[in-house]
Amino acid sequence: MSDDLLRLTATQAVAELRAGTVSPTELLDASMVRIAAVEPAVNALPTLCEARAREAIRRLPADTGPGWLAGLPIAIKDLTPVAGVRTTYGSMLHADFVPAHSGLTVERLEANGAVVVAKSNTPEFGAGASTFNDVFGATRNPWDTSRGVGGSSGGAAAALATGEVWLAHGSDLGGSLRTPAAFCGVVGLRPSPGRVARGPDGDVFDDAGVEGPMGRTVADTALLLDAMVGRDLRDPLSLDPPDTSFTEAVRTARPPHRVAFSPDLAGFTPVDAEVAAICERAVRSLEALGTEVEAACPDLTGLYDVFHAMRGQVYAGRGQLLDAADRDVVKPEIRWNVEFGERSTGTGLAAARATRARLYHDVVAFLAQRTVLAFPGAIVPAPPVTTRYLEELDGHRFPTYIDWVQVTFLSTVVSCPAIVVPAGFTNTGLPVGLQLLGPPRGEATVLAVAALIEQQLGLNTLPIDPRGSG
Fold first, then answer.
1. Considering only CA atoms, which of 100, 175, 124, 99 is closest in space to residue 322?
2. Residue 171: active-site member
3. Is 344 one of the annotated active-site residues of the chain?
4. What is the mean predicted confidence (pLDDT) over 15-44?
5. Which of 120, 152, 171, 192 is catalytic?
6. pLDDT grade, residue 232 (50/70/90)?
7. Is pLDDT above 90 for 2?
8. Is residue 215 within 8 Å of residue 119, measured between CB atoms?
9. Is 119 tagged catalytic?
10. What region does 230 belong to: left with phi over 0, alpha with psi -120 to 50, or beta?
11. Which of 60-74, 155-169, 228-242, 327-341 has the lowest mean pLDDT?
12. Hey, where are the domains in the chain?
């Protein structure tokens, strides 16, 4: 029975919960058994909160709206507080921190019937695209445990791929929902700023970082997004829910007339040749539905510098929370990013904002003629778990620790939603993800196109048991 429950998609599991044919306790029991079985191999969910979850089941709300999860177990990334549960941010500075209140996203999810069972592993303060830290160690890729999972929502992606939970929460500043999805063969969606209310702690006016959903399928990801969205006055950027649910947008998906594909964003980043070929085959699967796939990309001049200016501003703010002793404790990549941000000038930030505005208008005009822009979710398959960050690809050296995921920068800079959907596998069996960028607040658009690609490819074999190399 436990194995049968694990193989249910989140959408199927919630349908069973709503019908009363499966209970939340049965799903929680199955989740805890699976966690015990696979955690030694992957280290995805280092902090469990089983007793809290069982108490939450006794207090489940009775709502039945489109975002109601009806008692489904989920994981919350260890950057977002869960009241009464150890929340470390992946840092020794907070190794024993237990928050008194939850983040806004957790509040909304629990109000919509989610049952939090665990915190998922993340790099220190979410910095970097490799999930390791001094508190819990590294998370390993279930497709090949000698490989990493990306970051910073790496624990979430591995937990989904192995069936420890049916849905997982994550966050994304520079690809943190999308890179792990590409490496682990799951779906990750970076929503538009404001689509998911954040806070109440931290910079509530920051539009670079967002929280969002991950799932094993596109429909599951839409279901979790429906459970996350809504206005909250404690987040000044937050938006009202859409009139039509994201679940319905996926259910009624229709083939787009035209989509664009660029394997390297017109030379913006190097990309492994096998990855590029797999992504092109995936997007061209839409041609069988009558969609025109066009080789095209907007002008992205200035994108690199704008992203680093935005990221530097975020880290300069974080640096104000670190005293000299703290800076000696955090990893060197964080120190570098804080110092980079502190060197920024008002004139430089103003110039970056002007370039950002131009990029936004250029992308909006480009997408007015095409439904989405498709490109790789990551430029390489998952690297070895010991890789802090990729320093070079095909003779191109990356100047900073975050540049090897610069294929994710565009969505952040232009505030447009982007989704990564499984596209195929390399010759060595590692997952590859295709990224789709949609128009502003166009989550329904990218979900619908991703669902069509998912249907065309028929790749979903999750969950899997962790596999050793070779």
1. 124
2. no
3. no
4. 97
5. 152
6. very high
7. no
8. no
9. no
10. left
11. 60-74
12. 2-303+345-457
Strand order in the sheet with 418-425: 47-48, 114-120, 72-77, 167-172, 210-215, 187-190, 418-425, 431-437, 373-376, 258-261, 292-295
Q: Is it the case that residue 66 has pLDDT exceeding 90? A: no
CA–CA separation, 125 and 321 (whole Å): 12
What torsion do the CA atoms of 122, 125, 129, 133 make, to the nearest 10 degrees? -60
Six-digit token pair at 3?
């194995």
- Which amino acid belongs to residue 437? L
Residue 317 in tokens: 């703010």
HEC string for 264-312: CCCCCCCCCHHHHHHHHHHHHHHHHHCCEEEECCCCCCCHHHHHHHHHH
184 touches 158 (CB < 8 A): yes
- Residue 32 has a pLDDT of 98
Mean residue pLDDT across the chain: 97
Compute the distance between CA of residue 276 and CA of residue 141 in angstroms, rounded to an integer.
Answer: 21
| CATH class, 2-303+345-457 region | alpha beta
Mean pLDDT of 406-431: 98
Q: Which residue pairs, CB below 8 angstroms and at least 24 apart, start in 80-86?
A: 80/105, 80/106, 80/169, 80/171, 80/211, 81/106, 81/201, 82/49, 82/106, 82/116, 82/119, 84/49, 84/52, 85/47, 85/49, 85/52, 85/116, 85/119, 86/47, 86/119
Q: Which helix (H) or strand (E) holds 364?
A: helix 346-367
* Catalytic, out of 176, 192, 238, 285: 176
Is pTM beyond 0.85 here?
A: yes
pLDDT at 470: 58
Continuous segment of H or E residues that includes residue 412: helix 409-414
Cα–Cα distances (Å) from 373 to 418, 448, 450, in that order, read 9, 14, 12
Cα angle value 78/83/89 (rounded, 5°): 20
Rounded-to-integer distance, Cα 465 and Cα 158, Å: 11
Close Cβ partners of 189 (under 8 Å, ≥ 6 residues apart): 177, 212, 213, 214, 221, 225, 417, 418, 419, 420, 443, 446, 447
DSSP-based three-state secondary structure for 417: coil
Residue-by-residue DSSP string for 30-74:
HHHHHHHHHHHHH----EE-HHHHHHHHHT-----STT--TTEEE
Q: Which two tokens stand for residue 417?
A: 């939603």
